[in-house]
Amino acid sequence: MIDSSINILEEEEGVARKRINDLIEECPQLQKGEALIRKAFELANEAHRGMRRKSGELYIFHPIAVSRIVASEIGLGPTSVTAALLHDVVEDTNINLTDLESLFGPKVANIVDGLTKLDSVLDQNASLQAENFRKLLVSMIEDVRVILVKLADRLHNMRTLDSMPEHKQYRIAAETLYIYAPIAHRLGLFAVKTELEDLSLKYEHPQVYNRLQEKLKTNEADYQTIIDSVALPIQEQLDKRGLKYTIKARPKSIYSIWRKMQAKNIPFEEIYDILAMRIVFEPTDNGLDEKTQCWGIYTVITSLFRPNPDRLRDWVSIPKANGYEALHTTIMSPSGRWVEVQIRTNRMDEIAERGYAAHWKYKDEEPAGENEIDKWIASIRHMLENADSNSFEFFDEFKLNLFASEIMIFTPKGELKNMPVGSTALDFAFEIHSNLGYHCIGAKINYKLEPLSHELKSGDQVEIITSEKQQPKYEWLAFATTAKAKTKLREVFRAERKEAVAKGENLLNEYLQEKKVTINARLIKRMLDNYHISNKEELLYQIGKGAVNLDNLEKVLPQKSPNKWMKMWKLSFGSKENIEREDVDDDYEDDSSDPAPAPMPKDKNIVLSDEATQSYAIASCCTPIPGDDVVAYVEENGTMTLHARQCPQAIKLMSSMGNRIVAAQWVSHKVLSYLVAIDIEGIDRQGIVSEITKIISFEQNVKIRSVHFEAQDGVFNGTIILYIHNTDDLQTLIKKVIKVNGVESVKRKDKVE
Ligand code: MN
After folding, report:
1. Rounded to the nearest 10 degrees, how much is the dihedral formed by the CA atoms of 638, 644, 648, 652?
2. Average pLDDT over residues 347-372
3. What H or E segment, with its residue span, contains residue 483?
4. Which residues are catalytic?
5. What is the distance in A from the centroid of ligand 1 to the CA of 153?
6. For the segment 645-678, what is each residue's pLDDT rounded down to a tens digit?
7. Would you say 560 and 518 are in contact if contact means Cβ atoms under 8 Å apart?
8. Are 654 and 646 in contact (CB under 8 A)?
9. Span 489-504, average pLDDT
10. Which residues make Cβ contacts (< 8 Å) with residue 72, sequence separation at least 6?
11. How far is the CA of 85 from the centre of ligand 1 (A)?
């Protein structure tokens, strides 16, 4: 027995060693660091010996897989590969950083340190992943390789997510979509980003994912025909010109298709630009620059096929902020389907696929601070240095920095700035210089005077008008959209705020002393509820500012009000009243001990049945009903709120407070009803509304809470709020209503308002 298990282990370790050999052989950039990499492998192998992942595989296969991604998919060198091999040893074994530093040098040790710090906090019961994320950024601005190895680690974990418990899957998938995919995008790692997105969708909405995958498969032959009809004539022309090139074509990623369907509210069949073709060519030595050669190919293509003038994208003249360069056009294929064509050189292609790493390979000698990615990292550094203690806010701001698309704005002197879509004149002022931001009063946009809140369009020329007397205003936060503008404004307001908080604290203490009430957590909670304020600091600030009048506090003090109502939905067995509002009496006592937080059932899925004994609140931001993919968020007091899994609020919570998220599943739901709103549009005619409502209440036997219809110029639209058992019933109902003569569309609304 013992002998055979040792043999198996030896055999597996042999496989592991072979993978390292293969990796070094396949990646020429690793050869100069071969000895270091082998040393790291031997150490990691020994340290993890006997450990296995949930899949049963030896643990060492995970760091090996991560280092393969690091080297062959991101294109990094020996230092990063060494760090990737060692990324879990400090955390999981008794090897420490000092050991690593003496064996592998300070660079490797620092990268591992950055990754370890992050993971160890992440696994604890930390209240805020947002805080940990900030730590990751701190390490990242010291050495970008920390985040690159982290992305590789995350990618491998996503590829092997099946072996994780379900409640962790959602959290990891949501976090991946919320933070890691955008970072990959921002660093220009297109392939990594796309895979992370697809895998996240696969775990968040397995049914959606499988259905789309199925559809792409079914249409494969059609796609090939369309692609051939476009690619063959292009090939012929390019061959005639003696060009060296490759043409690759494929449908867009499942996630991007899904996003489009969501954004435009259209079915798969109506997405017209599902196919993308890429021409990657080697520039010829004909004296023309790469850009001109790209346009040359563009001319070849557009003399064969008609281009869509609205869909020309020129990132060869001005690359994207993440370094992306290419020329995109969308052409009409002979079969009448649009096909997107991307034209790139080899160099552009490598940058597009591998991002940051490839960027550096081509621009080795470029001084730091000169390129867009360095600028981006510098802006993160600035945000970190000036961030509030509120990690959540910081988190949001960081998100602002991860834009998908950009516009180009010109200064009066014709200098070009890349700005995020949605930027305002105020953002632009801060982009140029913070002093310009502090003192701006308006802007001349294309020589026309506009307010600071004016949203800029690509190609605008903007001149900021200032006045020495001007001071930053709170209202500006409403239309400051870039992280830079927001951060700068907050810096100014923070000092002001500190003062007001201190003042508020004094006022409150004096007031409570006078009333002979001692302050405790419960009292604070009551005050916050009363004013609908989220935290104590904000309350003190409001008091200090005079926005909260202390005389109004009277009613939350213990002697005045013994009861406080709390709104909560309770699901209980057999209740005829379908949804029953339960009033929870939080019998107020003036003791200073807080109620013990309810234990969180972390490791099991919550089953939501008609017999459910536990109370749930249905989140008002997304109002899920049985049949929807949901997660439960455990509130601080132990109650649960159900969110739809794609609800932006839920995704944010999963990413930042993932340890409070519990997977939830609906089972048979025939007894209880939930509120759902549907929008109906169509051509108006006499009696149509009553026909619709009749179908709903008599044929479908569904209770209606409210009906609101408006008609104008022969077109009507309306909203009906219903009590419904589950998504199946809703689908049946929608199918019935859409058959009513005149009804053009019936859609479920994201939330019930
Ligand atoms: Mn790992």
Report:
1. 30
2. 62
3. helix 483-515
4. 91-92
5. 5
6. 888 788 777 777 777 777 777 776 676 778 889 9
7. no
8. no
9. 86
10. 23, 26, 27
11. 9
How would you classify the pairing of strands 338-345 and 275-282? Answer: parallel
Q: 48 CA to middle of ligand 1, Å? A: 12
Cα(390) to centroid of ligand 1, in Å? 28
Percent of residues, the chain, with pLDDT higher than 70? 81
**Is residue 411 left, alpha or beta, with left meaning phi > 0 and alpha meaning psi from -120 to 50?**
beta
Q: Which amino acid type is present at position 154?
A: R
718 C-alpha to ligand 1 centroid (Å):
51
Single pTM value for the model: 0.63
pLDDT score of 393 more than 80: no
- Centre of ligand 1 from the C-alpha of residue 57, in Å: 14
For position 323, what pLDDT does the model report?
77
Q: How far is the CA of 161 from the centre of ligand 1 (A)?
A: 12
Contact 677, 748 (CB under 8 A): yes
CA distance 647 to 641: 12
Q: What is the phi/psi pair of residue 448, to 5°?
A: -115, 135
For 93, residues 6+ apart whose C-beta sits below 8 A from its C-beta are 47, 48
Torsion of CA 78, 80, 81, 85, to 10 degrees: 140
> How far is 70 from 81, CA to CA, in rounded Å?
6
CA 309/CA 139 separation, integer angstroms:
44
Identify the band that residue 577 occupies on the pLDDT scale cut at 50, 70 and 90: very low
The four Cα atoms 714, 717, 723, 724 give a dihedral, to 10 degrees, of 90
Ligand 1 centroid–CA 122 distance in Å is 12
**Helix/strand/coil for 664:** strand
Distance of alpha carbon 432 from alpha carbon 436, whole angstroms: 7
DSSP secondary-structure letter at 388? -
Tokens of 504: 């508020």
Distance 62 CA to ligand 1 centre (A): 7
* Neighbour-count burial of 121, counting CB atoms closer than 10 A to its CB (0-12 exposed, 13-18 middle, 19+ buried): middle
Specify the DSSP element, H or E, that contains 344: strand 338-345
Q: Which of 34-43, 56-65, 140-149, 286-295 has the lowest mean pLDDT?
A: 140-149
Q: Are 682 and 720 in contact (CB under 8 A)?
A: no
Task: Point out which residues pair with 461 in neighbouring strands.
Answer: 410
**Whether pLDDT at 162 is above 80:** yes
Nearest to 212 by CA among 273, 272, 268, 162: 268
Written as six digits, the tokens of 522 are 């419960």
Helix (H) or strand (E) holding 689, with range, is: helix 688-694
What pairs with residue 338 in β-bridges? 332
- CA 36 to CA 83: how far, in whole Å? 10
**Ligand 1 centroid to 115 CA: how many Å?**
9
Nearest to 422 by CA among 402, 437, 436, 405: 405
Instruction: Establish how many alpha carbons lie within 13 A of residue 562's alpha carbon, considering only the half-sphere containing its beta carbon.
Output: 0
pLDDT tens by residue, 85-108: 999 998 888 888 899 999 999 989
Which pLDDT score is estimated for 389? 47
CB 329 within 8 A of CB 298: yes
- The pair phi, psi for residue 614, each rounded to 5°, is -85, 155
Radius of gyration of the chain (CA): 30
CA distances from 250 to 200, 274, 366, 618 (A): 20, 9, 35, 41
Count of helix runs (H) and strand runs (E) in the chain: 28, 21
